[in-house]
Amino acid sequence: MSTSSTHHIPDTLVSPLAKRLKSWESLLLVVAVAIFIANCFASPYFLNAWNLSDATFNFTEKAMIAFAMALLIIAGDIDLSVASIIALASTAMGAAVQAGVGTPGLVAIGLATGLAAGAFNGVLVTRLALPSIVVTIGTMSLFRGIAYIVLGDQAYRGYPESFAFFGQGYVFWVISFEFVLFAVLAVIYGVLLHKTNFGRSVYAIGNNPTGALFSGIRVQRVRFVLFLLTGLMSGVAAICLTSRLGSTRPSIGFGWELEVVTMVVLGGVSILGGSGSIPGVVIAAFVMGMVTFGLGLLNVPGIVMSIVIGALLIGVIALPRLWSKLRWGA
Amino acid sequence: MLMQTQTQAETDPVTRPTPVLALDGITKTFPGVRALSEVSLNLYPGEVTALIGENGAGKSTMVKILTGIYQPTEGRILVDGEETRFPTAQDAADAGITAIHQETVLFDELSVAENIFLGHAPRTRWGLLDWAEIHRRSSEILTGIGAEIDPATRLRDLGIASKHMVAIARALSIDARVVVMDEPTAALSHKEIEELYELVDQLKAQGKAILFISHKFDEIFRIADNYTVFRDGQYVGEGRIEDTDNDALVKLMVGREVAHIFPERTPELGDEVLAVENYCHPTEFDGVGFSLRRGEILGFYGLVGAGRSEVMQSLFGITRPSSGRIRIDGEAREIASPADAVGAGIVYVPEDRGQQGAITAMPIFQNVTLPSLGRTSRSGFIRLAEEFKLARTYCERLDLRAASLDTDVGNLSGGNQQKVVIAKWLATQPKVIILDEPTKGIDIGSKAAVHDFMAELAGQGLAVIMVSSEIPEVLGMSDRVIVMREGRMVAELGGDEMTPETLVRHAAGIRES
What we know:
The complex is a heterodimer of chains A (330) and B (513). By secondary structure, chain A is mostly helical.
């Protein structure tokens, strides 16, 4: 108070470097390097620039959604409808192709569909105060259901040649457009979460929504924007994936929501909200991409791959807990 | 102290029957707090004993001891004159003690009958639940207390009053000899209260001993046979209701020395900064209006549930009033969210620090700058150095004790957490600061610091609203006091009118005698 001797409080006692070394991201990086080395030994085809470039397609599209999903999960919500938004956006684009819409129009439709779907989720969650997991399980069926009604067992084809660039184009040598987009989005989301007031609000809401509200944060507005972003990113992923495949089927991107959530959680984002980072998600994307690619080179069937990914997720998450239990003897 | 000897003299031990339940010399300490200090309580068959005391006098602790939830640190519990112990709540129930709590613990998703018999349901020969018997006895008990409720109804479909009747039925389903009622009428309407009185009379006629805890004096005089008064965890007296009156009881309740020295201050009142007109809410408060000037400390006193916090939270934009207007510096403002309130210069330090006040899992500096990020950032981008600077300025002003500004708020003591919350709001440079029970649950040292700081803020021209249930704090700090009861402002007191007796009178709704 008004005492003469002012008590000085240091800003921080832990150096940023020490903090970083002890972080989840460092552990994950070690895992990533280990998998990389293992892959080098496992297959002679692994260390090839074009093969590695191909491998990035395993994760780039999912990772784009994962960035927005990371923010959403940190804020204490979740969106399980992302894969169905891909289907909806892709169907909308396919229908537009039949009507003769050109590439810029297709991109606009893909993004707009994603935004609209995200806004629909956001309104239900924030205005009607429904739990996001329930809302998005509902819209997961709803959005994909629309795609199935429109397409049945048909597929939309005939995308313009210039549209193929998003999923198949290369910017420089082996560097694909998708990979560049992934890198740019990683930086944008990293800055958004870690360097802006918006990102700080996301953490505050995830840690204690009541406390955030009582601190003057517009909680519902932030949550709504996060649903918008997740929808938008699903739209972006829909453009890339549709472009890469060159066609739209209603089953497009089926089951991706779980892979996206896996990537986010593997990246160290607490499923309960409140903590996590974008660098973690980036490393997790590489880990998952390399594991699937490495196993693919070894001709391991897809079902075994999902077993390995599941085991990896549980293993990496359980490891630090097991470690501290052993160390403290608890 | 004179009162105490007098009242005890009135109690002639020879003519009284043996108490069904007697608590003798009970002391209960928690780490750092002495909640009860050598208190006694006697409950007699067929009689209602009122336990009277201010908030925090130790009444609820006493109830928890006699229902086996807490263990006394010292003292004896006597059932029919024989010493016993209640290691668990089940042991107390087995001894025939049952309680109807302030906030009744019932299960919304279960049926009325299930709620009544949960934990002690009759079984069939095969060890399965005897549903026929459960429903038959539930109906019997409910009819017995005049409640027309179908035992098969799901609890969530009942109104609050009916739920209360279920809670009472549950208490009676255990063949109780002692019934504890902890503020049973708080949620009831006038008619329901009358029904409850009849029920209490019935229970008395059955020879049960009843402990009745209430803040409402009219109730106590209507229903109780005996009274016992606690103050600050100490026993101050007991006696027969017919031998006492309002004044004597109020004096026993509040007649303490002011142990704490409050800061000396000569208020310098400036212009009106906040004017609230006819603030109403469908259920919580009605017709609240007041004016506040720069440099003034306005106290809000009332019993728990009088609607004080609800009014403050609606001024802060948490709950929307159904009608009413706010003017700040003479200008009408619309406050639809806390963000609007902060923008208008009204900030709120809530009673519930852990949930509402601070984000405990985040570091001090981030908590402090959360509402001020607009000032520490540049076009939405965080500037850490600015944040630390702002946080340090206000934390040091409040003499916060912490290892570093990067420490999570959850690791601080209650008093230091409160300082973080206050620092957070001062950093927004508000016009009006509302403090809701600002010193609840914090140690004496921090308490004095918070009081000094409030005085300092008012001295600098900030308008302060303080909601408090502690009479010494209200009287020691406020320039003016508004007393609320049942959602309405019942008195506005200043100067010599501000005495413990007048506060209690207005808060409890006792007419001048």
